[in-house]
Every structure is written in C-alpha cells, then in structure tokens.
Amino acid sequence: MPPRRLLFNIGNTRVAVASGLPGTPGFQTDFFPTGDFLRQWTPPQETTPWNACAACVVPAIARELDARFPGHFHWLSPRDFPQVDCSLYAEGRLGADRLANVAAAHHLCPGQPVMVVDCGTALNSVCVSATGKFLGGVIMPGRETALASLGRNTAQLPEFAVTAAHEFNPLGTSPESGIRNGVDLGILGAAEKIVRATRQLDSMAGCRVWFTGGDAPFFVENLPRELQVELAPLPLTLYGISLAKGQ
C-alpha cells in the first residue's frame, strides 16, 4: 500500500495540515495555531506509512519536524516545479507559500497571466506570466498584523482581532472604530492600487486576479466590482504543494 500523503502549509499565524487532493472528495484540512502546532499535532496513528510535502516559513518548526520524523518531510523548493521559471529570485529567497501559489496559478491557468493575492499575516502578491515565469510581487502587513501593531506599539490604543465586515466610515467616533475603519479602508485602498498597477504592466495586462487565504473573502466582497477580482477556486497554496515533483 502506498504511503499516506499529507500536505503542510506552515505559516506565521497558523498551520494547515491536509490529506487528499484539494478539490476532490475526501480532501480534509485541520488548522493549528503556529505557536501550539508542535505540541498539538500528532502523525497518523494507522499502521499505513506516511510522508509529507510542506511549505514552511518558520525554519525552527521545519528543523524540529525533521528531528522528530527523519525522512518523512519533503520541503518545497523551486526544483519541485520545473514548469515554472523562478530565476528572478535567488535560491532560498522566495517563500515556499508564495512558490506554491505561483505553481498552482500557472497549472490552473496555463497560457494566461495570473496574479495571486494571499491574505494572511502578510498581504502578498505573486504574478506569473502566460509562459510560467514568476515576475515578482509585493509584501505588506495583513489586516490582523496592522491592527495588532497599533495595539502593541501605542500606549492608549486597544488591540483587537479583525472582523468579517462592518460599516466603513472614515469618521470614526471612538478609538476602536477609528482603528478598524482606518486599517480596513487603508488596506482595501492599497490592494486596489496594487491590482490596478499590476494590470498596467504589459506582461500582466488582462490578468486574472485570485485572492486566497483566510482573509480573502473580505477583499473580494469589498473591492470595487469593476476590478473583477475572484476568490481562488481551490485552497491555492495547498494545491500548489500537492503539485510538487518531489513527492
């Protein structure tokens, strides 16, 4: 019997552990807070052997998993995706989650430029050309990171988590409403500017724009409709991990 295959997306805030292929029956994902992951996650208990393909942006967790489960983990690298040209980035400089998004976008839309905006701890974009060349992207704080930074770095402003939606009003009448509206209006404006600027480039003219990650619905629901941005059709990072040739 072939080994059971697991997919790991180890981010700064949470870890997704999946089995099966995204978009197929039986696909299942469990989520863990990154800080508690090594304590909470246990490997499959069946007698069937298992292996894992993983994207990780927290090197300490990768080292610990290799120490606990030697030989079980394959860590994503550009060599896993010969169909994608990542030569603009030096080896090891392109985050594995962003690499997975590039690979997934090109696989799902061959012959078409695609921009993926991943909405998590950071708001980051990756752009892949119609021929499969990674062209770059931007990285900025995500909503929750921006909200938390104000609470941590100011004496009188509160720290609180993001909400799914609220009434946008630039005239906040309390510190809480002022912060929420300031961060949300600001980050929506930044996202819109990034999408429009990207589409002005010859290599990305007419590109599809997919939003993925935990906060993606907030952006798709609140950006202007004429921008024609979409939710990614699958859990994009996990799908990209599943395409790795190293597995």
Any overview of this molecule?
This protein has 247 residues and is α/β, with parallel strands linked by helices. The protein is 31% helix and 22% strand. β4, α2 and β5 form a beta-alpha-beta unit. The longest helix is centred in the C-terminal third of the chain and has 25 residues, at 175-199. The protein is globular and about 60 Å long. The two termini are 16 Å apart. The model has no long low-confidence stretch (mean pLDDT 89).
Features:
31% helix; 22% strand; alpha/beta; 247 residues
Overall 3D geometry? globular
Q: Whole-number radius of gyration?
A: 19 Å
* Strand percentage: 15-25%
Helix content: 25-40%
Q: Number of helix segments?
A: 7
Main beta sheet strand tally, sense and closure: 6 strands, mixed
Mean pLDDT: 89
Q: What is the first-to-last residue Cα distance?
A: 16 Å
Catalogue the unreliable spans: none
Q: Structural class of the secondary elements?
A: alpha/beta
The SSE string, one letter per element, is EEEHEHEHEEEEHHEHEH
The strand count comes to 11
Give a concise summary.
Strand 1 (4-10) and strand 2 form a beta hairpin. The protein contains 7 helices and 11 strands. The chain has 247 residues and is an alpha/beta fold.
Explain the layout of strands and helices.
Elements: E1 4-10, E2 14-19, E3 28-33, H1 37-40, E4 50-56, H2 59-68, E5 73-75, H3 96-108, E6 114-119, E7 122-128, E8 134-136, E9 139-141, H4 143-153, H5 175-199, E10 208-212, H6 216-222, E11 230-231, H7 236-242
Parallel strand pairs: 1-4, 4-5, 6-10, 10-11
Antiparallel strand pairs: 1-2, 2-3, 6-7, 7-8, 7-9
Helix pairs in contact: 3-7, 4-5
